[in-house]
Amino acid sequence: MGETLATLLTTGFAISLPLSIFFPLYRIIAPVCAVLLLLQNRYGNGLIRFPGPFGATLTNFWRVRWVYQNGDKRPTIVGLHNEYGDVVRLGPKSLSFANPDAIEQIYGANAGMPKSKWYMAFEAHGKGEHKANIFSTRDIHWHARYRELVQYGFHIDHFGKKEGEIDDLIKRLLQIMDEKVGKPLDLPLTLQYFTFDAGGVFAFSRTYGFLREKLDIDGIIASVRSGSMHLNRLAQAPIFQMFMDQNPLAKYFGFVAPPMEFAKKYLPNDRIDKQLSQPPAKPQHYDILDAYISANQTNPGIVSRNEVVDLGLMVVVPASEAVRTAISVLVWQMLQNPAALVKLQTEIDATFKDRNAIPSWKVCSTQMPYLDACVKETFRIHSSTGFMLERVVPSGGAVICGEYVPAGTVVGCLQWVIHRHKPTFGEDIETFRPERWLEASKEQRAQMEEYLCPFGFGSRMCLGKDIGLFETYKMAATLFNRYKIKLQSPQKDMHITWGNIVSVDFEACLERR
Length: 513
Ligand code: HEM
Description:
By secondary structure, the chain is of the alpha+beta class. The protein contains 26 helices and 13 strands.
């Protein structure tokens, strides 16, 4: 067998040489090359002065293993910063920053840093397709123009006109919850039926039917969860993706990621075709598709018909999973902190006399300071996303937090770390304490608000921020107005899945108030 293999490997240039010459050479050359590569990784990137785990300086596979091992914990980069300080070397060519001063230098308008290859994991692939989207693209110019054309569709002034439709969905959700009163309820999953359908209404003015069917349609919720975990792991080492999801051979296996398949299956193609065949008109539906259609009509080279699939994908991942996580964490935190819950309930009772009321966005967002503090504290202590927002230092290098960083280095901040910056948020950063937002001086509060960044930073900040906030404020006020909520297992932590979303699971038990 050894003879045959060696013969094959050498066919064409040295078939007649005795095999015994080659094996000793392979045995020596391979390890020498590996050692040289590891030394180059550790010492050759100009980052040796930055502290970090030894394995991380040698290879990105350290990160893959690290994320695998910690898949059921909150992001452990926080622990690495506690151990190594404000700048941690996370890979041969990557640095994580904990000081909020880094934000402007990495994500500011003048930084000129594109996203890293980490984001490739979130591009369409399979069956011959490979397509960047608004979230993943590393093309700064295409992104800027694309975003400029569609962003009004994500703005509260536009989609806010759909509040009545969302209230109808909330009523359906409450019916499902009422049926479960007194019984164990998978609250995060039930909330996701709502966030999925609400995403459909915001994007396309139609639901997917999760609340009607009361089940995980096409198993997409389960797929998104496992996909988020899987992609977050693979993405840690971009080269890993070449062998797996981004493998050019994947198209021959006919593999299409489930979120993509789902997004395409439920696109309202009839409406899209009809509207595209008509002359440009004023918004008719006040959904996000309005903005995509008008962008396609005026700038088809920037927002092509294919970009509408991006919109479908947004409903499947951030609009359903990230918003579910935000609302679920808020509920869980309130239940862990009875004193805070009493204060929230007192504010709710003073604001709404009717326990069946579905609070309006306007009232929730402007007249309920304690609710506002609870939402902010939820996003601070547990941001829905759990990936470092990686950018690449452009040619010429950059100075970040006083440190020179060479061109080509991947740099970034994780919100979980920034939100634990003690000089900004206080010494008790691991405690859920909404009061910190109310007791702070005007200057300190402004500083905290500037560094509270669950939706990211700068030109790549979340487009769905208004939608995420709209749903979180409304659902929190609605649930605590109507129900007395308890945890089924009060002593147990939430079950955590650290994927690109840090999802949570727990069971609750509701009683009508
Ligand atoms: C609580 C809910 C949400 C959270 C915490 C959240 C968080 C984030 C974060 C941190 C980013 C920045 C990623 C980066 O820099 O790499 C992002 C980007 C994005 N999010 Fe969200 N998101 C939420 C809801 C939504 C919703 C509801 C939508 C759409 C309806 C959405 C659409 C997007 C898009 C399109 C981007 C890419 C923006 C760009 O690069 O220009 N998100 N989100």
